[in-house]
Amino acid sequence: MNRRRRRADGPPPDQPALFDHQPHRPDTYLTTVYRLDTAPTMAGLRRALHHPYLREKGFTATPRRVAGRPALLVDGVVRQPRAEYCDVIARLTGHDIALGHSSGGSVLLLAVDDRVYALTYGTLGRHMIDPSAIDRGFGIEFAVRALLPDHIRQVRRRVLGASGRVDRSQVPGGQPIRWYTIDKWNELVGQVAGQVDNPRLADCRRTGRPTLVEGSDSLRIRLCTEPDGLLADLREIDRVCRQESPLSDLEFITQLRPLRSDDPRMKELRDAVDERLGLANPPAFGLAVPGPLLGEIEQVRSYRIRIARSRRPATSTTELDLDAVLAHTRRVPDGRRWTGLQATDSLTLCTDEAGKETITTTPLSRWLTAEVPVGAHRLLLHEGTWYEMGAGHQRFLREEIERLLDRPASLVLPAWPTGMPEKDYNDRVAGVLPGFVPLDRKLLRTAQHRHGFEACDLLGPDDELIHVKRAKGSSPLSHLFAQGVTSVDALCHQHDARTRFVETVRRQQPGRSIDESFRPRKVVYGIALDPGRALTVTDLYTFAQVALYHAAKTLRVEGVDVEVVSILPR
Question: pTM here?
Fold first, then answer.
């Protein structure tokens, strides 16, 4: 059983003899604690306050001391003389009521050695802190080092590359973290809660039992209500963060974290992206379909690129690649490329090749992917957000992808002539190889996929779903991998999808032995790179590796095997 035990060097539990006087055990109070990025001085404490909010509400900060340490206290009440529901009741009943309410709160900023903490109370306390001063992930940092990994009570995670989906799972009695089936490569854990058994904390000593803790950007924990005891608790929390290693079962949570907007490395990252947008062949740079648009991309027939500062008119293309974007951005002055993509530059998706029938327009910045090394760290840009990936996470991911790429393929696809469009290549394969059915751009419209989805580019002789792509680097591959998941999900779980699929296959190849009992058994990703190159893990940017890993894992849950085949160019 993987369980954090009491340390031998910690104080032993009290074991009074009969009739002995019980030692005083101070009270504790459930408190939300933030660690702040500011100097442990009175001036530093003042800088960490949210002064516009305090001025708006008429709150003032008062200097205090807690066990001899500098502190700053803010408290206040916001009164609402008439609740908004009063008007609703009046309209429903014709009877007017006048009920008000008040919201109160307080924050205590406290310097402890070289750290600064904010202890917040009530509904207003957290609003009194400057958000840019908050040390994001502090609560997670403590939790992964202190929680009992077999007694995790709550997990909140967000899926990368999806439409902002957030899942919250709760088991009141707790369970091992592995039972939450977190996708370590494709989900960010933003909150984790459970039990901590540490006799150096006042609440564990007081009760003789583990204490409940919730870690996110903040730490929610029962802290001692006496000055010296409070400092002791905060120092123990700091010791755990500085000296303890993350527990093996929880370490993965620390391996992929979003960067704060005020991270000091942000300027270097912005400059690096701006520079690459001015190059003809930038390193570790590409395009990927944003998660929210994966459901729309199958019906796209052209893209319209608009970059205001390029002094070029908007251009349309039927095949979106990085070169089409760089043709615009290279004309933008240094220092203005990335800011323009974030603010005004856009990509419009159209259902016709002429670019007149618009689906939607999105910021171009959300399509860019990049990897930028900063010192010993690797920073990743994905859908407009920067992430930091730990070395262990990256190493394990590469090993998984290498195993997948090194598997012998069960079929061979012919060479892809340079310059040949994708649809022509698929038609050529079906024309020269027996048993292959061309299904490129044959959209299946169903109740769930009203705009249609593409089951595959080719149906193989043993009913393999084959998805092909010519890729410069890994720019389009994240979409290719997601396409395979979408198709299998529909064909496995939607009867009308199977019906449309069978009808389409029979139209393309009359006499093909297939009926509505069809279930996918294998997905093949066929990928063509530049002449003279076979696909290796180094050809895939990190988020493309994540997308391939996630696709393979998801498909295997459905009982579907996955192969990756290199298509030689010609």
Answer: 0.67
Structure tokens at 351: 């259902």
Instruction: Give DSSP secondary structure letters for 139-207.
Output: HHHHHHHHEEEEEEEEEEEEETTSSS-EEEEEEEEEE-GGGG---TTTEEEEEEEEEE--TTSHHHHHH
CA angle 259, 262, 265 (to 5 degrees): 65
Q: What number of other Cβ atoms are within 10 A of residue 93's Cβ?
A: 9
Closest CA to 319 of 479, 449, 443: 479
Question: In whole angstroms, how far apart are CA 97 and each of 78, 79, 90?
Answer: 21, 17, 7
Q: With CA atoms as reference, report the closest residue to 64 among 121, 132, 133, 119.
A: 119
Q: What are phi and psi of 164, to 5 degrees?
A: 70, 20
Whole-angstrom CA distances from 488 to 72, 235, 483, 515, 524 are: 58, 52, 9, 16, 12
Q: Is 315 helix (H, G, I), strand (E, B) or coil?
A: strand
Parallel, antiparallel, or unpaired for β 561-567 and 522-528?
Answer: parallel
SS (HEC) of 210-255 = CEEEEECCCEEEEEECCHHHHHHHHHHHHHHHHHCCCCCCCHHHHC
What 3-state DSSP class applies to 553? helix
Q: Among 150, 368, 345, which residue's Cα sits nearest to residue 270? A: 368
SS3 state at 482: helix
Mean pLDDT by 10 residues, the chain (570 residues): 42 38 72 96 96 93 96 94 90 92 94 97 92 88 94 85 66 89 77 96 95 95 97 98 91 80 86 92 82 73 90 88 90 89 85 84 86 82 82 78 88 89 92 93 88 91 93 68 90 94 94 91 88 70 79 89 87
Q: Tokens 């205001």 correspond to what residue?
A: 308
**Nearest to 113, CA basis, from 245, 264, 244, 239:** 239
Answer yes or no: are the C-beta atoms of 319 and 300 closer than 8 Å.
Answer: no
